[in-house]
Write a sequence for this structure.
C-alpha cells in the first residue's frame, strides 16, 4: 500500500509513503535539463524541465516513482493492481509507455492546466521497460500548488478526476474512495455534543472523541479516510522546518509497521520510505523504515543544465543522537 498527500503552508509540499515488501533499489535522482530522454514512440526530448524524485535507474533511464519538476508540478505513481489497464499503440495520439508517464509530464508541464491539455492527447501504452522490469499497475496523483488530479487508465478508458482532497492511496478506483468520505462527515477534531439522547447524561470523558470512527486499519480505503482527515485538519507554522515536520506527521498517520500486514508467508509490507517534496523550492526530503532522520537533496545545489543523471543513494541506518556520550 502507498499513500500520497499534498500540504500547503507558505510553500507547497507533496509526498508519499512507499509501502512494499522489498525495494527495487531506489535512489534520489535529478534529471537535468539537457539529459536526452528517449521516448519509445515519440522520439527523443533533448531539452526539458529539470526534475528530482525517487527512482530506480536502469540502462541510464530514471524510472521515477514520485518526482517534481522545477516549475512546481509533482506526481506520484501508486499501485492500482487489478484495475490499471494500458492500451496498444494507436494512431493520431501521443503513445507513452506506462514507465514514461512521469518524465513525459514533468519534462514539459509548468502547471496543472498544461497537464490537462497534454492528457487530452495521451495513450498510455502497455509496453514494459524490459523483461526484468515488467509493467507496473499504477494510478497517479498530479498536483501543483493550486489543484490536484487523479489519473486512472482502466479497461473502459483514461479517467482524469479532480482531486479536491489532494490524497491518493490504492484500490478501489478514486470515485469510490471519494464517495466513502460521505460516511465520515460527522468526524471532527472538536469534542462531540450529545445528540444521542437528551435523556441520557453522556459524557465526553476523553480528548479526541470527535474522531471516533476514523478507521485505523491499513487497508487502502481506511488509509484514504485517515490521511484525508489528518491532512485537512493539520496545522503548522509556516517555516520550512515546521512545515516539513508536519508533513511527515501527516503521512505518519498511515505508516506501516513490519508485522502488521502480511502479504505472503513471513513477508510483510512496510513503509520503505516517506518523501516530502518542497515543490516551491525543489528540495526532496525523505526518511526510511530504518532511518528516521530526515535527509534532503536540493535540486538547485546541482548544475541543472547538465546532461547526466545525478544520483544520491538512500541513506539507511538509524542516526541516533546520543546526548551524553
Ligand atoms: C511497488 C510500488 C508501489 C507501492 C504500492 O503502491 N504499494 C501498495 C501495495 S498494494 O498493491 O496496494 O497492496 C511501485 C511504485 C512505482 C513503481 C516503479 C515505477 O513504476 C518504475 C518502474 C516501472 C517498471 O515497469 C517496473 C519497475 C518500476 C521500478 C516500478 C516498480 C514498482 O511497481 C513501483 C516501485
Amino acid at each position: 500500500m502507498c499513500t500520497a498527500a499534498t500540504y500547503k503552508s507558505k510553500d507547497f509540499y507533496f509526498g508519499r509513503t512507499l509501502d512494499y515488501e522489498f525495494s527495487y533499489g531506489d535512489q534520489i535522482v535529478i534529471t537535468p535539463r539537457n539529459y536526452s530522454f528517449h521516448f519509445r514512440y515519440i522520439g527523443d526530448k533533448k531539452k526539458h524541465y529539470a526534475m528530482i524524485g525517487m527512482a530506480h535507474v536502469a540502462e541510464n533511464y530514471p524510472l521515477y516513482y514520485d518526482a517534481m519538476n522545477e516549475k512546481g508540478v509533482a506526481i506520484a505513481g501508486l499501485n492500482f493492481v487489478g484495475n490499471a489497464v494500458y492500451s496498444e499503440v494507436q494512431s493520431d495520439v501521443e503513445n507513452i509507455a506506462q514507465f514514461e508517464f512521469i518524465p513525459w509530464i514533468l519534462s514539459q508541464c509548468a502547471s496543472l492546466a498544461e497537464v490537462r491539455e497534454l492528457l487530452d492527447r495521451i495513450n498510455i501504452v502497455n509496453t514494459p521497460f524490459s523483461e526484468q522490469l515488467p509493467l507496473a499497475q499504477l494510478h497517479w496523483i498530479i498536483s501543483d500548488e493550486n489543484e490536484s488530479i487523479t489519473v486512472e487508465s482502466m479497461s473502459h478508458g483514461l479517467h482524469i478526476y479532480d482531486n479536491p482532497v489532494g490524497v491518493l492511496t490504492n484500490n478501489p478506483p478514486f470515485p469510490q474512495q471519494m464517495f466513502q468520505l460521505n460516511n465520515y462527515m460527522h468526524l471532527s477534531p472538536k469534542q462531540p455534543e450529545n445528540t444521542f439522547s437528551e435523556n441520557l447524561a453522556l459524557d465526553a470523558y476523553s480528548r479526541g472523541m470527535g474522531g471516533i470512527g476514523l478507521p485505523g486499519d491499513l487497508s487502502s480505503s481506511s488509509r484514504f479516510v485517515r490521511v484525508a482527515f489528518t491532512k485537512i485538519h493539520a496545522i503548522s507554522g509556516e517555516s520550512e522546518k515546521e512545515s516539513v515536520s508536519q508533513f511527515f506527521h501527516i503521512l505518519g498517520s498511515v505508516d506501516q509497521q513490519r508485522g502488521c500486514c502480511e502479504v505472503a508467508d513471513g513477508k510483510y509490507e512496510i513503509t520503505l520510505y516517506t518523501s516530502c517534496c518542497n515543490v516551491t523550492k525543489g528540495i526532496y526530503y525523505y526518511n526510511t523504515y530504518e532511518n528516521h532522520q530526515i535527509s534532503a537533496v536540493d535540486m538547485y545545489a546541482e548544475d541543472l543544465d547538465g546532461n547526466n543523471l545525478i544520483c544520491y543513494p538512500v541513506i539507511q541506518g538509524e542516526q541516533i543522537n546520543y546526548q551524553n556520550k
Notes: The chain has five helices and 20 strands. The radius of gyration is 21 Å.
